[in-house]
Design goal:
Length: about 1050
């Protein structure tokens, strides 16, 4: 046989032998990251900022500061420093993506909003879709106090009263930061806030790591955020205070006077290292160990740092990590640049590290605060991210503004030195290792030991082509997703396209706007996507419904030499099923059917055109293709076969076992082979039109469509028929068979076939299928009656009627499971044009040049586009593919922001405004209608209009349609309560809260309101039913 098995190498050999056992036992893998900092909107930009040594602190003009609300007299103070680390775009948010109404988004602290976006990005960066992940995902995070609540919301008492104070509290209080993420992303692991001032986010990483080791969750999100608004604001410098005199953080320098404020967010995705290695995750770094403690009272004051406390936590982390200090070659310090803090931090490090080594200048140190300022609760996670990126790129970025050491720090006799330029990270003694410190006011100290990720090679894929799937919530986001991926592929790539395809398939949420491409490599993908090649780049909108599938099995005439050869070489499931059929047929026939389908060059190639060989060969290929589809989670809800194809349908449905199906197919092939030679002809005529050509030598074998029939007869009769058809200019096609099937010519073999069927054990169908004999659904009685299968051999194939029956279900997808596209063409001839995309062949025609793998993957993509339920995680089975970092979702961020009032705010004024507030205050702003799954339809009556007004007021959305979903617009249970209250006041009807959840749309809710109003009328005494009463109820 000419086809080799083509199997790729199995799991990565020797991976675990290369990994330190301590890592497998208690190591934590960082598998995903996301951040936004001053000067950087993502992880890649952050690394670029670091390696270039950029200073991202912004210095403001007087005009900017005055516009932000600073007072003129403050600007004239010589101690006023006009600097801050500004995070761009804090007023922006993709509310619709996360199911927020515009109103809810506007009253939500930007810290909550941006942390939610970064949590989603980090999971995507790790290659995980939380909706499809079966394990527990925990959230551990920290945030600063909500300055947005204080400066922007509290002055608007009328807004707060109209919204409801509890709603405002949920969007701004620290307590709800992590639980909101868990709710919005459907995360079911532990979820709680961790607050220890500046060290909060690094403590969160420690707590998350412990939770993973204790198996409280399987994935953990850990991080922190700090955004203080307005950002265009400086500060007053105080001698020996925390903040710098000039807006520069000069950590460890003689000129250091403190740090500078900054705003930002960082999130990491953590897994147990053993799980990450097993699951094929890309590991960015390993947490070898971590520790947290508190200074206690052994220091000069509550806010002061402690040498003893810091030294103890560093020593504890080293002990947990089980590494020697002299193997740590970089230290990301707390590094605030204060006169007291810097010397204490170095003294604590010296105490610990001098116990291991007397060497000097062996460990570089730095502080990210010199680049972007002090990010308060988020400072620890940002320092951690800096180290992870440094480990990945094997470079140490410069720590800025260091010239001469603080005179209280003796670096010359210390293991440490300040790294002031971009340096290649060399570590001759051990894998690259680094420490990260974060110390909080109040004395809670955290220290984490990191190690570079162990080397793990990607496995070669056996597939020559790969299915890339893209989806987005809106059409414009889909285009942005496509452009991002094009740009990604055009960069120098070390990632295999198989891993990229796998990550897109399993690590991205599935949205309604969809696009697919089958490509061979990243450059091929980029070129096809850039051109939007219509034959390759397929795009469709899918409404969210999982659509059922019918499998269509072709019959004789569709076979060709080497059909499915690519699939046999590359797909283990297909190969195993083919081999299984061969093993069953060989004892029955004495023939190696694999060599019939895939002959070597020296073998005869014409055997496959003989019925004796073609019928078993076709069955084998169609059965193997079915097993492939089933392995990908694509299970049919209906089946139809054409002639021989019905045997495959019956086998898949459970009427025959595989063994008995093959025995019957072989019997049928043998019996037909005994008959005198005949021919079959496909003609472009209706059943009525072919009647004039029928006689005792020519029969109607199949009705395939309104103008497509198959005629069967002796060779002489068919030759005469061809001459007639030529005269009348009727299109026809010879079918490559050598018998006159489904005609009186087969009657001499019916008794023998009947005897064969009677020896089979027939079962009721488990999957419904269409009968070729009747053109409608087969009954249990028919399927289990041997006489039915005799009629099936002899009678006309009613395929056209069967297709009409299937097309009655408007949502049914039709998938041709066998060689060629003949059945798909017949189905499209009877379907409306809008259903053409739902009729899909999955194997190439014998004359097509494209490969079987390409065709199959494109068919898979078309099914996914149309909404079929698919287990994409199985496409590469049993290969061990990896989840790799790819561009994340392009949020369509809009401004959701309540500006502070121009006049000053005071509690007394707030109390006065609160007393004056109207019950339903007008909204401060309204927002455009978001992209929804429903088309806009305006209210058609007064009740619908009134409900529409209520929704628009509460949700602050313009142009709400009567079929728009309340919760898709961003509604929630609190707003639903207000809807019910307003309806009660407006229409004098009592509605339960669940009515909003059950009706969902204005149209349905209006029908319910009208029913309640009619019930109210019917309950009134007849004397009270005056015209005024009725008009009052409905006005």
């Amino acid at each position: 046989m000419s086809c080799n098995d083509g199997s790729a190498s199995t799991a990565e050999e020797g991976v675990y032998e290369l990994v330190d056992p301590a890592i497998l036992e208690h190591g934590i893998a960082i598998v995903g990251m996301a951040c936004r900092t001053p000067g950087a909107q993502n992880i890649d930009q952050f690394w670029q900022l670091l390696r270039e040594g950029s200073h991202a602190i912004r210095f403001f003009s007087d005009e900017e500061l005055l516009a932000a609300g600073e007072k003129q007299e403050l600007l004239q103070n010589p101690r006023y420093v006009r600097a801050n680390g500004v995070l761009e775009g804090v007023e922006l948010f993709d509310a619709a993506f996360f199911g927020y109404s515009p109103k809810e988004a506007a009253i939500t602290d930007p810290q909550h909003r941006l942390f939610l976006e970064c949590a989603y990005e980090a999971l995507e960066h790790a290659g995980y879709d939380s909706e499809r992940y079966n394990g527990l995902i925990g959230v551990y995070a920290s945030t600063s106090i909500s300055s947005y609540l204080i400066t922007h919301l509290l002055p608007h008492q009328e807004k707060l009263a109209q919204t409801g104070y509890f709603s405002v509290l949920q969007g701004n209080d620290k307590d709800y930061l992590t639980t909101r993420v868990s709710y919005k992303l459907n995360l079911r692991g532990p979820s709680y806030l961790i607050q220890s001032a500046c060290s909060s986010s690094l403590v969160a990483v420690h707590v998350a790591s412990q939770a993973l080791l204790d198996h409280e969750c399987d994935i953990a999100l850990a991080g922190g955020i700090s955004i203080q608004v307005p950002q265009e604001q400086g500060y007053l410098y105080q001698e020996e205070g925390v903040l710098s005199a000039d807006g520069y953080c000069r950590a460890f320098d003689a000129k250091a006077t403190g740090t500078v404020k900054g705003n930002g967010v960082g999130v990491v995705v953590l897994k147990r290292a053993s799980d990450a290695l097993q699951d094929g995750d890309i590991i960015h770094a390993i947490i070898r160990g971590s520790a947290v403690n508190n200074d206690g009272a052994f220091k000069v004051g509550f806010t002061a740092p402690s040498v003893e406390g810091q030294a103890a936590v560093i020593a504890s982390a080293l002990a947990v990590a089980e590494v020697d200090a002299d193997t740590v070659t970089y230290m990301e310090t707390h590094g605030t640049g204060t006169a007291i803090g810097d010397p204490i931090e170095i003294e604590a490090l010296n105490r610990v590290y001098r116990e291991y080594s007397e060497e000097k200048g062996i460990c570089a140190i730095g502080s990210v605060k010199s680049n972007i300022g002090h990010l308060d609760t988020a400072s620890g996670i940002i320092g951690l991210l800096k180290v992870v990126l440094s480990l990945k790129h094997r470079q140490i970025p410069p720590s800025l503004h260091f010239e001469h050491p603080n005179p209280q720090i003796d670096f010359e006799n210390s293991p440490f030195y300040v790294n002031t330029s971009l340096a290649d990270w060399k570590s001759p003694k051990a894998p690259r290792r680094a420490g990260v410190s974060s110390f909080g006011i109040g004395g809670t100290n955290a220290h984490i030991l990191l190690e570079e990720a162990p080397p793990v090679a990607s496995q070669r894929s056996s597939l020559p082509y790969h299915l890339l799937v893209f989806s987005a919530r809106t059409a414009t986001a889909l285009e942005k997703t496509t452009e991002q991926f094009i740009a990604w592929c055009q960069q120098p790539q070390e990632l295999p396209i198989a891993d990229m395809a796998y990550t897109l398939q399993v690590g991205r949420r599935e949205f309604s706007y969809r696009r697919v491409l089958v490509a061979s490599d990243p450059l091929d993908a980029a070129q096809a996507l850039a051109k939007r090649e219509p034959s390759r780049v397929l795009t469709m909108y899918q409404d969210g419904r999982k659509r059922p599938i019918a499998f269509l099995y072709p019959g004789s005439g569709s076979q060709y030499l080497h059909m499915g050869a690519d699939l046999y070489r590359t797909l283990p499931v297909f190969r195993d099923a083919m081999n299984q059929c061969v093993d069953i047929l060989k004892p029955l026939s004495g023939i190696d059917f694999l060599s019939i389908v895939y002959p070597s060059p020296e073998q005869q190639a014409s055997q496959l055109q003989q019925t004796l060989y073609s019928l078993p060969a076709l069955f084998m290929v169609e059965y193997a293709l079915t097993q492939t589809w089933l392995s990908w989670g694509i299970a049919p809800s209906a089946l139809i076969g054409h002639s021989l194809g019905e045997y495959v349908a019956a086998c898949v449905s459970g009427v025959f076992s595989l063994e008995e199906a093959l025995r019957l197919v072989w019997l049928r092939a043998q019996l037909l082979d005994r008959l005198p030679g005949g021919e079959m002809l496909s003609v472009s005529l209706s059943a009525e039109e072919v009647a004039e050509f029928l006689d005792m030598h020519v029969s109607l074998a199949a009705i395939n469509g309104p103008s497509s029939c198959v005629l069967s007869g002796t060779r002489e009769a068919i030759a005469q028929l061809v001459a007639l058809l030529d005269e009348e200019e009727v299109d026809y096609l010879r079918i490559p068979v050598d018998v006159a099937g489904h005609s009186p010519h087969v009657e001499e073999i019916l008794d023998a076939f009947r005897d064969g069927v009677k020896q089979c054990e027939l079962h009721a169908p488990q999957v419904p299928f269409i009968s070729n004999v009747t053109g409608t659904w087969i009954t249990e009685e028919e399927a289990t009656d041997p006489e039915y299968w005799v009629r099936h051999l002899r009678h006309t194939v009613q395929f056209s009627a069967g297709i009409r029956e299937l097309l009655k279900d408007p949502f049914l997808l039709l998938l041709e499971v066998g060689p060629g596209n003949t059945l798909s063409i017949h189905a499209k001839l009877q379907a409306a044009p809008e259903r053409f995309a739902a009729i899909i062949p999955s194997m190439r025609h014998g004359l097509e040049k494209q490969t079987d793998v390409y065709m199959l993957l494109q068919a898979l993509g078309k099914l996914w586009l149309a909404g079929a339920a698919i287990d994409l995680a199985q496409v590469y089975h049993p290969e061990k593919r990896r989840r790799v970092p790819l561009p994340t979702y392009p949020f369509e961020r809009q401004r959701y922001w309540i500006d502070p009032p121009e006049r000053g705010f005071s509690p007394a004024l707030a109390s006065q405004q609160s007393n004056e507030v109207q019950e339903y205050a007008a909204p401060l702003t309204t927002y455009e209608r978001p992209a929804l799954t429903s088309l806009y339809k305006p209210p058609s009556n007064e009740i619908e209009q009134n409900i529409c007004d209520i929704w628009q007021h509460l949700l602050e959305v313009k142009q709400i349609g009567i079929h728009d979903n309340f919760f898709e617009l961003g509604g929630n249970s609190l707003l639903a309560t207000q809807v019910v209250t307003r309806l009660r006041e407006l229409f004098s009807v009592e509605l339960p809260l669940r009515s909003v959840f059950e009706t969902l749309t204005i149209a349905k809710l209006a029908e319910l309101v009208e029913e309640k109003m009619i019930e109210s009328l019917e309950s009134l005494p007849e004397d009270d039913l005056s015209e005024e009463t009725i008009q009052g109820l409905f006005s």
